[in-house]
């Protein structure tokens, strides 16, 4: 007999003499019932098979319905809570100690990744869920990149760090493959539900960030507010929140996906909200999320957001038909108006926080510092009235020169600061990548470390209680990153082996230290592209470009290609400000899930095997 299951948009044909079931992995609602026909061979005993204009897959049905339902719920629950776990990227954290070259820490995001992979693996082994046929990127060529990166561990200068980094990389890849294999679970109503959960979680985190600023101004200890040492009002006269991330750079980076997704949904041609959320609700969400992003005061995240939005706007305008461009221009203009409104709101809020903070800063000095910092010192609206409220200019220059002398190549005589702090932060998760706690990568002087080997708390103690540490653009934040990039190129071009093969995964810090270019092996390159070049050589870079091209060719055919590509561009810019191959899990997991939803879940059904 034959019956139609309208809730899942599939047609199921079941034979009375067999427990086998045939499902066509396609969207039946688009084909219509007249396009599916049942054929039987002459014997009459063969299992029925549907013939569609699209491909069909014959699989065996798993008869344990109750167990299957529970397994589906577990997978969906894990995907639903994924945004919340990603936002909890550093608090709470489980510390497992450390070594000379790295610290070992387990975050909630990393624990989620392990649990998701284990559950998916159990499903593959116990439930025998078969791959649905189509490969995620149309082939296996993209695997050359992770395979090569893993092989570089053989000659890595820090194999332990390389092994842990590669381990996390493969966990992320396996999670992406599992999402693709189970993509039938993530379409339809679940996709709409997940989007609402995603925005809801983002708004909750935004609320916490604003509360974090209030708690800091009220004098609540950092142990309770969870604000990082370099994020308090004592730095610039106003606080800039890090949420549950290690620093503002990562908090702002976490908000890129909901901000760009919200902007895309606001500009969609059909009802602007595509039936998921009303335009008004989307606009409110966008204003809150972008305001929080600006509030983090992270140049890396803000620059990435602006570039991503510019790409999104250009994609929308030039991809649409000419007759629709006027409407698109109107909606794009509305979105950019919301961006400007968010920035002005945050700018005034930062000025007001500076005025009410215990420092001697005023409303005008607060907004002046924001403008000066975000424009890399180019714009200083204080003009002749500029007054130093932090370290005197001569003291800053003397400290910088002293630090530069310390970082010059000295071979075995290099001096390591007695407090164990390097120019950049050295805290990392289990991967050993140091990109998670670094004052230069945070752009906004986040994390627990200070500048020139001086802790933030020590810097604050040397100031008057009413005097903030910085009065505007912190030039050393930029100089440090540029200097590290130059150091990476210097080591990479040192010999042919480094140029072609690299120093091995996880070996950048040790390579810098061995050449006397850093005070400690925990140092990292504050740019993922330079770090990739140094550690994996030209081979790794070429394979990385190849994977990127494959991704773009796959994504550009999708209905929501503009959103996914804009997010890829934004993340690509953000990787210029920190080394995040294993640490920024949200970059890879969110892109993987978006890709699965875009190209798999909406048209595929779940194929099971007994």
Summarize the structure in words:
The protein has 610 residues and is mainly alpha-helical. It has two domains: 60 residues, no CATH class; 383 residues, no CATH class. The chain has 22 helices and eight strands. It has a four-stranded antiparallel sheet with strand order 1-2-3-6, with no helix packed on it. A two-stranded antiparallel sheet has the order 4-5. The protein has a two-stranded antiparallel sheet with strand order 7-8. Strand 7 and strand 8 form a beta hairpin. Helix 12 packs antiparallel against helix 21. The chain is globular. It starts with a strand and ends in a 9-residue tail after the last helix. The relative contact order is 0.14.
Number of DSSP helical runs = 22
Residue share in helices? 40-55%
Structural class by sheet pairing and helices? mainly alpha
Radius of gyration: 26 Å
Mean of residue pLDDT values: 77
Order of helices and strands: EEEHEEEHEEHHHHHHHHHHHHHHHHHHHH
Question: Low-confidence runs (pLDDT<50, min 5 residues)?
Answer: 1-68, 387-394, 406-448, 452-456, 601-610
SS strand fraction: 5-15%
Please tell me what the overall shape is.
Answer: globular
> What is the strand arrangement across the widest sheet?
1-2-3-6
């Amino acid at each position: 007999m034959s019956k139609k299951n309208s809730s899942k948009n599939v047609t199921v044909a079941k034979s009375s003499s067999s427990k086998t079931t045939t499902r066509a992995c396609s969207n039946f609602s688009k084909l219509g019932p007249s396009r599916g026909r049942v054929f039987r061979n002459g014997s009459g005993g063969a299992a029925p098979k549907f013939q569609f204009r699209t491909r069909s897959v014959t699989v065996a049905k798993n008869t344990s319905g109750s167990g299957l339902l529970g397994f589906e719920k577990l997978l969906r629950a894990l995907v639903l809570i994924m945004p919340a776990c990603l936002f909890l990227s550093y608090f709470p954290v489980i510390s497992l100690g450390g070594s000379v070259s790295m610290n070992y820490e387990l975050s909630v995001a990393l624990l989620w990744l392990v649990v998701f992979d284990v559950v998916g693996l159990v499903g593959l082994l116990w439930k025998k869920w078969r791959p649905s046929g189509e490969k995620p990127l149309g082939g296996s060529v993209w695997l050359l990149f992770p395979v090569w990166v893993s092989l570089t561990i053989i000659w890595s200068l820090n194999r332990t760090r390389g092994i842990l980094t590669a381990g996390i990389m493969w966990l992320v890849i396996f999670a992406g493959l599992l999402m693709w294999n189970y993509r039938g679970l993530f379409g339809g109503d679940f996709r709409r539900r997940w989007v609402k959960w995603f925005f809801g979680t983002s708004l909750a985190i935004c609320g916490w960030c604003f509360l974090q600023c209030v708690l800091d101004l009220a004098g609540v200890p950092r142990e309770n507010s969870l604000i990082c040492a370099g994020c308090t009002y004592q730095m610039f006269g106003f606080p800039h929140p890090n949420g549950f991330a290690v620093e503002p750079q990562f908090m702002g980076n976490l908000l890129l996906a909901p901000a760009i997704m919200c902007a895309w949904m606001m500009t969609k041609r059909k009802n602007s909200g595509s039936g998921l959320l009303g335009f008004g609700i989307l606009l409110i969400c966008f204003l809150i999320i972008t305001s929080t992003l600006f509030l983090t005061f992270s140049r890396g995240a803000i620059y990435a957001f602006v570039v991503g939005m510019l790409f999104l706007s250009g994609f929308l305008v030039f991809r649409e038909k000419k007759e629709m461009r006027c409407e698109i221009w109107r909606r794009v203009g509305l979105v950019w108006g919301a961006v400007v409104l968010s920035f002005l709101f945050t700018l005034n809020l930062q000025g007001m926080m500076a005025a009410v903070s215990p420092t001697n800063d005023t409303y005008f000095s607060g907004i002046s510092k924001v403008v000066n910092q975000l424009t890399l010192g180019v714009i200083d609206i204080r003009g002749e009235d500029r007054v130093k409220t932090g370290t005197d200019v001569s003291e800053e220059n003397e400290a910088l020169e002293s630090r530069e002398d310390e970082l010059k190549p000295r071979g075995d005589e290099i001096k390591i600061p007695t407090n164990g702090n390097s120019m950049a932060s050295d805290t990392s998760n289990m991967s050993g990548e140091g990109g998670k706690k670094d004052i230069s990568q945070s752009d906004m002087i986040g994390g627990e470390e200070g500048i020139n080997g001086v802790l933030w708390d020590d810097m604050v103690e040397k100031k008057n209680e009413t005097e903030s540490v910085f009065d505007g653009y912190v030039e050393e934040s930029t100089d440090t990153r540029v200097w590290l990039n130059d150091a990476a190129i210097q080591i990479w071009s040192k010999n042919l082996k480094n140029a072609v093969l690299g120093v091995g995964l996880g070996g950048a810090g040790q390579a810098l230290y061995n050449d006397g270019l850093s005070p400690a092996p925990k140092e990292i390159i504050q740019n993922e592209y330079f770090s990739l070049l140094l550690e994996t050589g030209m081979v790794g870079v070429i394979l990385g470009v190849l994977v990127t091209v494959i991704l773009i060719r796959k994504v550009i055919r999708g209905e929501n290609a503009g959103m996914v590509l804009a997010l890829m561009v934004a993340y690509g810019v953000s990787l210029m400000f920190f080394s995040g191959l294993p640490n920024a899990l949200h970059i890879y997991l969110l892109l993987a899930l978006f890709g699965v939803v875009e190209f798999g879940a909406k048209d595929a059904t779940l194929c099971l095997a007994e």
